[in-house]
Amino acid sequence: MTSKSSANYESSKELYLGFDLSTQQLKIIATNGKLDHLGTYNVEFDQEFGEKYEVKKGVRVNEQSGEIVSPVAMWLDAIDFLFGKMKQQNFPFDKVVGISGSGQQHGSVYWSSDAPQLLSNLDASTTLASQLKSAFTFPESPNWQDHSTGEEIKVFEDTVGGPEKLAELTGSRAHYRFTGLQIRKLAVRKNPELYRKTHRISLVSSFVASVLSGEITTIEQAEACGMNIYDIKKHDYDDELLSLAAGVHPKADSASEEEREKGIASLKEKLGEVKKVSYDNCGTISSYFVKKFGLNPSARIYPFTGDNLATIISLPLHPNDILLSLGTSTTVLLVTQNFKPSAQYHLFVHPTMPNHYMGMICYCNGALAREKVRDALNEKYSLEKNSWDKFNEVLDSSKKFDNKLGIYFPLGEIVPNASAQFKRSKLANGKIEDVESWDIDEDVSSIVESQSLSARLRAGPMLNGSDSSNSSTPELDESSSGESSKLKKMYHELHSEFGDLYTDGEKHTYGSLTSRPRNTFFVGGASNNLSIVRKMASILGAMDHNYKVEIPNACALGGAYKASWSHTCEKKNQWINYDDYISQNFHFDDLDPVQVKDEWESYFKGMGMLAKMEENLKHD
Ligand code: XUL
């Protein structure tokens, strides 16, 4: 998002930096206290360090083991390099008063016992990487794409009683990339000795904050939810899960009671305290950066968070707002007060709004699946392969739900958990009948409809209206009128046609089927296709607005906003609600409102049909 404001570095008294250490690059964004986006700086790892560190797309891959890692020293070089580049461009470092940012989620960094001493005595005349050589026990950080921890997934889920149980505790079922599993792999299989010698463990986000502040900082609470060891309701690590991560579980590791206790205590020390959501700083910029690049010595470092978490705070998202990221894959992020965990999605503590959560649903089949339909359509009409014109024309002319739906999974899908497959069905006389094939034109609306309905079905339980007060079936009062009795009637009709509806094994309630988002924000590549956005928006049925937003730097921007909000609260010594702060300062003219015909009601039945079709999908 490029701000339309005329502010610049000269006219801005105080500046904030937002970092984003992602898989392939390090990015820094500069903003002022009015949330004006003033500059973007980045370094691509492959381009600058590809040869030196033997990385491709920022990572080293071991095909056989499924291990995917990044060298930590490369990140240190990247920090020096990028600050150096900014200095060369005369960036006014002396105006920087606050720094925060984000890192790729789940990745971890393993500090040696030399680290605290080395970090606090950095010599500005040489480099970070050369001085921090002995600061790490493991020189590489497991990356979120890693899939080498199949064994650990099984142990974590079996020990707590299955995926749903783990999700109830930690906000997610076990995933390869989640930090607790990665720690267990290192502690049990990879190198128990180096694990034992590890003094502290940071996440990628807290690693950057540690380097900048010259001391190992705490892990931030929202990020801690990406580890599979943090009990969200208890606001603390779970001892049983810690014992698994440390490899000292009495059953899984045949550990004695003493070993268990020692192992848990030692891992707790390595991880340090989890910092609850707050505006407090976690340090001041280290003198290394002051001397070397001219940073303002009083610049404060505020806790860094995960990249998806930083994305939601780059926009004025209120509870019940949805951010739909339409990239190669589709990601649904939403803000909610309703802690309703499920094995099929993720819940994280919200990074700036206490008692709020971020829900995250990840789909594999997004743009790629739509492109396959587009290509087949263009082939039928002998049109140019990559053109969306015909696809959009067909989509624009499709109106309400017409009792037809398809499921298009050229790749295996995460939610619902299913193998690669295609399915087309018709609803006739209350029965769902499979259709062998139909005209490719039918696929156009059908794929966008089913993708939207899937997100609607899965976001529903997390929306605020679907809390326990709305879980039972409401009485139908034929005599009353108005919005709520209309909804009740629709719900009763749906129920009599399809019976109880389940999504990913979870029974839907009145509330989960009838709750609507407040606003929907569309981002990512396909958000530039207004026909797709309009159709999706009409089905998702936001009550207030639909916006299309361009936020190529969302994670870094979210970091800069976090720094400016924290710094403002600290200065005033007063809590300011984050959504109020953002809404007051946000440049709403950067959002493109999308006019949408509300078809939410017409697609109510579509939810029933899709839920039933999903019951008969093939699994691996
Ligand atoms: C989220 C995840 C990825 C990374 C990307 O769970 O693993 O989105 O955060 O950097």
Task: Report what the structure shows.
The protein is α+β, with helices and mostly antiparallel strands and 620 residues long. The protein has two domains: 15-303, ATPase, nucleotide binding domain (Nucleotidyltransferase, domain 5, 2-Layer Sandwich); 314-549 and 591-612, Nucleotidyltransferase, domain 5 (2-Layer Sandwich). Strands 1, 2, 3, 6, 15, 16 and 17 form a seven-stranded mixed beta sheet that branches. A seven-stranded mixed beta sheet has the order 20-21-19-18-27-28-29. Strand 4 and strand 5 form a beta hairpin. Helix 17 (440-459) crosses helix 23. The chain is globular. The two termini are 41 Å apart. The protein binds D-xylulose (XUL). The site of D-xylulose (XUL) has 10 residues, from helix 14. Residues 22-23, 104-106, 144, 177, 306-308 line the site of D-xylulose. Belongs to the FGGY kinase family. It catalyses: D-xylulose + ATP = D-xylulose 5-phosphate + ADP + H(+). InterPro entries: ATPase_NBD, D-XK_euk, FGGY_C, FGGY_N.
